[in-house]
Amino acid sequence: MLLNCGQPLPLLRHTDVPPRVIENFILTGYRFPNYSLRDCLLSAFRPTNETGNFWTHFLPVFVFFYHFVEVFGWENAPHGNDPFFYPLWNYFIGVFCLLMASSLAHLLNSMSIVVREVCFFVDYGTISAYTVGSSLAYYYYIHPRAGLGEIEEQTNPEMDQKASYTTLDLSVFFNTLYIPSACVVALVCILSCCNTRQRWRKYRYIIRTMVFLLPFFLSSTPIFYRLLTKSPYSDESPSFASSSTMAVYFYGHCFWLVLSAVFNISKLPERLAPGRFDIWGHSHQWFHCFTFLSILDELHMIKAEVKAILLSTSMLLPPGSFPRLPGPTVTSTYGVMLLLQTTIVSVIVWFSWKANSIFGPQRDQLAKDHPTKHAKCH
Ligand SMILES: [Zn+2]
């Protein structure tokens, strides 16, 4: 490897880096896995094959924040510290951690091959935690009886009797099992994804993509319910108008998710022209862009329902309704997230320890064979 004092370290071809670092159909623009923290941070401003991956999840943090804070300025909105917004803040934490961990994982993964493994374990962990942040928001804002803790009950005698029975059948699931199931599925996701870095390597992209279908279908059950049943808001109310935009955003959310999965699995466009998209335009950057667009549509969908709750003065409830949904508390939102994050951190520590025992000797050998520029320059 060439050493160049005072200059950025040279970028390498796929034949010059350890096999572990090679991405399919990406031939050039590699950083050798012996960068210092400073080299990694500076590489955000150099055209490497990770630069686009970093920026496509780092810049969206600001776009997301811009759209997120709008909620607190709405008419009837309580203060940002109010328990009503606890689920929304948990959703924010989930998305913020996902975007930051993903962008930093791409930036810092060339510190060593062990750090590279840890970076991506953290990445999978934050994706899993994000799914629970979404579920908490869905539970409190899109749940069949969301927001009712604040609102006087009314009954609608015209409500389809069959629909009310369906509601009753689902009440146990929504009230008792929904959030615990979301947490269990999130743990299944991180365990499966971390495992794909140590086994099932050949099918890793398919497994990582497919495994996140589980939390999608589970988390989205309140939305499916909403789409299949009558709106809880009266047709002429402003809440009905806001809530009815939810469906469009949900379809947009699904569309971007499908597109991101297609790019992640197919490795298009670099599969068609290996070497041509090494720096800009390869599939992982498109995957990042489409996942962010799916998150943005999800945020708009949640906001539409938050607005509907804030605007509602009455709701049309099915006859024989099941008990009202308790409002969010610190324990039922931040507490759930904290417990989940602690478990996720334990899983990451366990896999990192395993990765260190597998790749530690190789890392030490590489450090010996390829000393950093700083060591040689003095
Ligand atoms: Zn990524």
UniProtKB/TrEMBL annotation:
Compartments it resides in: Membrane
Chain sites annotated for binding Zn(2+): 106, 284, 288
Presence of keyword NADP: no
Bilayer topology term: Multi-pass membrane protein
Keywords: Membrane, Metal-binding, Transmembrane, Transmembrane helix, Zinc
An annotated Gene Ontology molecular function: signaling receptor activity
Residues spanning the membrane: 52-69, 89-108, 120-141, 172-193, 205-228, 248-266, 334-353
Chief site of localization: membrane
UniProt entry tagged with the keyword Nuclease: no
Taxonomic superkingdom: Eukaryota
GO cellular component: membrane
Pfam families with a match to the protein in the record: HlyIII
PANTHER family referenced in this protein's UniProt entry, alphabetically: ADIPOR/PROGESTIN RECEPTOR-RELATED (PTHR20855), MEMBRANE PROGESTIN RECEPTOR EPSILON (PTHR20855:SF143)
The family this protein is said to belong to: Belongs to the ADIPOR family.
Protein name: Progestin and adipoQ receptor family member 9
UniProt source species: Neogobius melanostomus
